Amino acid sequence: MGIDVVAESGTTFRVVVTDDRGSSTHLVTVMPSDVERYAPGSTPEELLEAAFGFLLAREPKESILARFDLPVIERYFPEFAAAMHHHGQ
Q1: Do 47 and 40 meet the contact criterion of CB atoms below 8 Å apart?
Q2: Closest Cα to residue 48, out of 27, 79, 75, 22?
Q3: pTM more than 0.85
């Protein structure tokens, strides 16, 4: 399983998830305030890698939205913030 994060423009990042069934591409908006909230001291790329690891532990890549703002994850998975803080420790 591979998670590849590339900055597209400003606060938008392209995340490509690859596994033995192929790959999926996701455009995710990460604001500086999101990094501060979920993973202070991390880069947006590090936060996205952790976030996608979190998502992929819970659903197949095909279920992940193609385009979303990072905080949307918390709406589906309320434990997201705590998991990211734990990851950053």
Answers
A1: no
A2: 27
A3: yes
Q: Show me where the domains of the chain are located.
A: 2-88
* Contact status, residue 34 vs residue 45, Cβ threshold 8 Å: no
Residue 83 has φ and ψ, to the nearest 5°, of: -65, -40
Return phi, psi of residue 3, to 5°. Answer: -125, 115
Distances (CA, A) of 47 to 28, 64, 67: 11, 16, 16
Cα distance between residue 88 and residue 85, in whole Å: 5
At 36, list the tokens. 């501060």
Of the candidates 19, 12, 13, which has an alpha carbon nearest to the alpha carbon of residue 3?
19
Instruction: Report how far residue 31's alpha carbon sits from residue 52's, in angstroms, rounded to the nearest whole number.
Output: 16
Q: What's residue 87's pLDDT?
A: 65
Q: Which helix (H) or strand (E) holds 12?
A: strand 12-19
**Residue 88: predicted pLDDT:** 53
